[in-house]
């Protein structure tokens, strides 16, 4: 196996660990899940570029008659990239003490203010930064707002 194969294996294992953690393990961390909301996908252009580059690598390796293991690993990497960026939705997971936003736990105590814009973006102002959340289904905003109002004190 070449260094490229080792690097591809590391990337594939890392993406698999991230996918399993994000889909299954995160639900059990910090207690029972109160609410899970799908967020709108970001970085569609970046994901498309990454997929295009991976396809170019696969094509280049097929033309140069590289090892079949390298081509197989590139296909696995391509499938994982498609899953992570196009099939899976990022999630906002509400727990008893806080919520997970892009795998970062934000405690309810750190919330200073909450605002909802007319176009359906929920702005959560924390002590040091702001978070702007756009959900897939507009009905989820009402559920989120109720959970946040119940758990926070301004």
Q: Can you give a write-up of this model?
A:
This protein has 154 residues and is α+β, with helices and mostly antiparallel strands. The chain has 4 helices and 7 strands; from the N terminus they run αβααββββββα. The strands form 2 sheets. Strands 1-2-3-4 form a 4-stranded antiparallel sheet, covered by helices on one side. The chain has a 3-stranded antiparallel sheet with strand order 5-6-7, with no helix packed on it. The termini are far apart.
Short summary:
This protein is an alpha+beta fold and about 150 residues long. Helix content is about 50%, strand content about 20%. The mean pLDDT is about 90.
SSE arrangement:
Layout: H1 3-23, E1 35-38, H2 44-63, H3 68-87, E2 91-94, E3 98-101, E4 104-107, E5 111-116, E6 121-126, E7 130-134, H4 139-151
Antiparallel strand pairs: 1-2, 2-3, 3-4, 5-6, 6-7
Helix pairs in contact: 1-3, 2-3
Biggest sheet features: 4 strands, antiparallel
Q: Compute the number of helices.
A: 4
Arrangement of strands in the largest sheet:
1-2-3-4
Total strand segments:
7
SSE-based structural type: alpha+beta
Low-confidence stretches: none
The topology string of helices and strands comes to HEHHEEEEEEH
Strand percentage lies at: 15-25%
Helix content: 40-55%
Overall 3D shape: elongated
Gyration radius, in Å = 20 Å
Mean pLDDT: 88
The first-to-last residue Cα distance is 58 Å
Features:
4-stranded antiparallel β-sheet; single chain; elongated; 154 residues; 3-stranded antiparallel β-sheet; alpha+beta; 4 helices; 48% helix
């Amino acid at each position: 196996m070449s260094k490229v194969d080792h690097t591809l294996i590391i990337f594939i294992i890392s993406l698999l660990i991230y996918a399993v953690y994000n889909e299954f393990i995160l639900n059990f961390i910090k207690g029972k899940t109160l609410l899970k909301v799908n967020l709108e996908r970001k970085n569609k252009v970046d994901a498309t570029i990454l997929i295009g580059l991976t396809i170019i690598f696969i094509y280049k390796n097929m033309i140069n008659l590289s090892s079949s293991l390298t081509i197989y690993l590139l296909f696995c990497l391509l499938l994982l990239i498609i899953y992570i960026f196009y099939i899976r939705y990022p999630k906002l997971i509400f727990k008893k003490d806080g919520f997970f936003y892009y795998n970062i736990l934000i405690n309810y105590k750190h919330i200073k203010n909450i605002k909802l814009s007319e176009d359906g973006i929920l702005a959560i102002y924390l002590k040091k930064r702001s978070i702007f959340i756009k959900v897939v289904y507009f009905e989820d905003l009402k559920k989120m707002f109720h959970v946040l109002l119940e758990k926070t004190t301004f």
